[in-house]
């Protein structure tokens, strides 16, 4: 008797499954097609992105070779083209290199290129700080201390990646513009930072020696 009940139950289950399949098979098939299409689309996207990155890397290397050969105008053009077309990973690097190549022919134009990177919210904060430091380095001999201070003061803060270079340029700019109080401030910041690189520390000590003695009250 129990076997008979089992067979009836099995038959009922088969009938229920058949009804479910008849009612929902199209939806199930459509879902499977969508899943397969989504996976295929994602794999295709990954392939295309990897291909673009590889192509950009090859172009970047050729531009670097042009720079190393002294062909700065050609290298600048190559980096600028790459910055306009490359995936995001190479875009910022290409913009920075294009500005570096431009600095040989027109420091002010190169500084403007760095400024554009520094002002781009789509660029990572460390890259923006690096661009600020590079721009200030091109202008430190000609700009006012107020200009260099505006550019670099936030980059000179204790947690900033490029604080050492920023402080050195601020100290040098203050010294060139006869602001000895500001020069001492930044030289002291360099001296008191235990992570200051040895070479930079030595340059700061040499500049400190050039400052007039502090007047005694």
Automatic annotation (TrEMBL):
TM region positions: 24-42
UniProt entry keywords in alphabetical sequence: Membrane, Transmembrane, Transmembrane helix
Ancillary SecYEG translocon subunit/Cell division coordinator CpoB TPR domain boundaries: 18-169
One matching Pfam family: TPR_21
Top-level division of the source organism's lineage: Bacteria
Cited InterPro entries: SecYEG/CpoB_TPR
Keyword Transmembrane set for record: yes
Name used for this protein in its record: Tetratricopeptide repeat protein
């Amino acid at each position: 008797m129990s076997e008979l009940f089992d067979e009836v139950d099995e038959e009922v289950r088969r009938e229920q499954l058949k009804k479910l399949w008849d009612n929902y098979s199209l939806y199930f098939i459509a879902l499977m097609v969508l899943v397969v299409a989504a996976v295929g689309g994602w794999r295709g996207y990954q392939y295309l992105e990897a291909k673009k990155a590889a192509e950009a890397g090859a172009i970047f290397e050729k531009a670097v070779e042009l720079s190393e050969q002294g062909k700065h105008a050609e290298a600048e053009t190559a980096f600028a083209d790459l910055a306009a077309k490359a995936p995001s990973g190479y875009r910022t690097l290409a913009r920075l290199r294009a500005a570096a190549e431009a600095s040989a022919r027109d420091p002010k134009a190169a500084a403007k290129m760095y400024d554009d990177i520094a002002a781009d919210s789509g660029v990572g904060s460390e890259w923006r700080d690096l661009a600020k430091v590079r721009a200030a380095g091109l202008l430190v001999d000609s700009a006012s201390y107020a200009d260099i201070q505006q550019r670099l003061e936030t980059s000179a803060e204790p947690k900033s990646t490029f604080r050492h270079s920023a402080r050195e340029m601020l100290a040098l700019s203050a010294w060139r513009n006869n602001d000895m109080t500001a020069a001492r401030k930044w030289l002291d910041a360099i001296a008191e930072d235990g992570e200051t690189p040895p070479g930079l520390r030595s340059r700061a000590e040499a500049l400190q020696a050039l400052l007039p003695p502090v007047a005694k009250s």
